[in-house]
Amino acid sequence: MTSPLVKRFLVNFDENKLLSLFSFVVIVGASGFVSMLIPPPEPIPTKYQASGTLSYAPQPPTFTETGATLQQQGQETISEGVLLSDQILKPIATQTELEPELLIEQTEIEFPDEDDKEEGKPFAIDVKYTDVDPERAAATATLLMKYMVDQSRALNTAMLRARIDSLRTRLALAQREQESAEKAFYKFISQEGAALVAAEDGTLFTGISGAQQQQRQLRLTLEGVDAQIQSISARLGLTSEQAYTSSILSADPIIGNLRGQLLDIEMQINPLEEKLRPEHPQMKQLLEQKQGLEKLLQERYAELIGTGLLVPLPGQIRKESSLDPARQELANRLVNLQTQKDTLVSQLVSLQRQERELKQQYERFPTKQLEKARLQQQMQLKQTLSTNMLSALVDAQSAEAETTGSLSIAQPPVLAQIPGETPGGLHPLVAIGGGTVLGFLISGGLIFLLSMFDNRLHTSKEIQAILSEREVMLLGELPFIFNLDANLEETPILRDYNLSDLHFYELVRSSIRRRTAKAPKIVLVTSVMEGEGKTVMAYNLAIASASAGKRTLLLEADLRSPSAASHFQMQPDPDAKLEPLSYYGSRSEYLQLVPEVENLYIVPSAGPQAKAALVLESSEMRRLLEDARGRFDLVIIDSPSLSVCNDTLLLEPLADGLIVTTRPGVTQKPSLESTLDRIIEAELPLLGAVINGVPRSELSTPSHYDLEEEQFPRFGSGNRVGELEEDNDAQLPQEIGSR
Description:
The chain crosses the membrane at residues 18-38, 429-453. The chain is α/β, with parallel strands linked by helices.
């Protein structure tokens, strides 16, 4: 199978063969004409070549490492660009009055091969200068070699000075980095040195152990104090705070005096309560005295124990201030023990905090030690680097006195004569041969360029790729069919005497039936553009359906073109063009039985019509299709191409599915892609696509032509039929192939 690229090239070559031939003839003629216009070359005069040799200069005695290294680097930097630099050419051009470009053109420098270097042969650079004047050739070669030696010395000196400047810059930077590293190390030692020393000599660990020992002693003492507090508190029935309050109140003489007065008044009130009412003047006076004393008692309580909160009732104050001397002594002891406990707790907390701080210092000791080592190492590295740079700078400055050139003149220029000659010109046959090759390339490139700009799809593989990208089912591939009708004219319509290609359309029909769960009854057959063979597809598909025993109706709905029913030796009603609505409204007028094919009926087109959309959207056309749905097993509608008009979309709501016909060599890629995208976006019932007019050599479905040739004899010239089958671009008959 021919590749799509080769097929595209061959098709465009066949279409543009005259243009290709014209470009080929023009180029070949132009090459012959140019060969005659080119004058014969002028004879080459006698020239003189001065040849000399440069070699590495002997190594001078050196006392510095930089001097030896510089000599070796200078030898490695020698190249043709260095030896023919402007520093050499400009002074020579001034002395010899020659242009620098001419000097470069006439100078030849040959370096030794790598093999010679590996074998240890002496290093030699051959310098050759060619000129028509022998004296000028010798003088110029001498100047070239002299300035090359001087340039080598200047190059070594420049390299040494650049090295010294670089070392000075880097030394200043290294010294600053050294100072920064030293400051960082000294700052760290001044801040963390004491802690590091304490950790290193064991002082820090001893402090941690001492703090832990003191904590254990304080806990033992604290447990004893807690036991005493609990014992005394249980005996008194008071907490330490309550004991403190009772001790203060019981020891105060004013509160004791007020308590005594209250007790005297209460002793007077108690016997009188049984005899006198509270309103009695004597009772009233005693109660007022009692209230006054209680108020004084509360005020004294606030003076002694002032919290700013509510003052207790007088009864509570009298109760809290009623300690006897023994209990008051126990209360004072309880208060002292509580104070001692608070002191011990504070000391314990302080020791715990001290222990944590010491442990943190001990835990940070490895990190600080590593940081110290890092800073010390960095400082030492910076010091070493600075020292090495200083040594290198001193060595480079000392090497200035040892600087020499890397080249020396091993052999002065020797003059040799180069005889002149007369070169041959361009032979006309060579020019024409080159023009022929160039003509083939340009004409072929022109055809290839035209094929790249060709939007048509020339092979079924290209069409299948587009269908696969959009998940459109390929219903089948159909070959070129050329039969002879009753008038011995070529026709693509299948006949009963030549049904060797009927199975291709049977495959398409079976694919349509399997496309949906319920077999579609009304199918629209359309194409992207004209000339893709949609009418041939509709006719032959109808013949295949009728041959399978299905009552089939073929409806020609392309009202913008004349009817193609003449291929069945049938003609539409002559009055149909004048009264199309009346024609489609009468079954007896539009429905015709095809005599050559059993079970096949046809509704010839009433076209061409100026108002085709009006007829297609009419109620007569709707009733025709509704009646056909009930009377026939399959209705095939031959509708116009989608690029011509939207008549197919007008009939789509009345149909069960849509089939798009394509054809290699006719279908254009942008049109097919945009049409399929519009159909998919509109969610139209697209059953699939068929590829029409596929050469038999490219068919993926096996052909039965050779097996059935004897059973179904073909009419007409066998050579002519074979040529049409092999031609991918063979055109269908004009009246039906263009549709």
